[in-house]
Amino acid sequence: MSAIDAGISAATGGTCLGAAGVLYVADRLPWINRLAAKIKSPQIQTLLVLTASIGLVSTPAGQLINQATTAVDGFVDGLAGEWTGFGIMFAVAMAALIWLVSDFMSGVQTRTLILAALVPPLTVMIPGTLGDIAASALGFIATQVGSLVMWLMGG
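The chain above was modelled as a monomer; its predicted structure follows.
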């Protein structure tokens, strides 16, 4: 990943996290709450936190997390079996994603925002090639969202 793409991903993540924070605070202020309720603020907050997490994980730090997890998995392979680390992390990432989707559809809670922040790092923590592909795919998504935002702002 080039430095420019990493910068776009990090900027996208930071911007989305800041916007989610503003909406979170606005939901708690009584005089803004009426307006925020009309725009489905909790769902937008969840999408912003998810995009922020994707943006921050898709920087070289996400690839570093994947490499570290793969190294630990290689060490554990001799003790617990070849596919144990992959199976556990894949199951945890999928369970978190399913729980996130379920919460998003049934009603956003604080847990939903936490899950939105955790799903991308858990996905990148899948050891081996699949986790590396996930990190690259998340980077592509964050770069495209950042480019779209720049285009919408006339840049």
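The chain has a mean pLDDT of 80.
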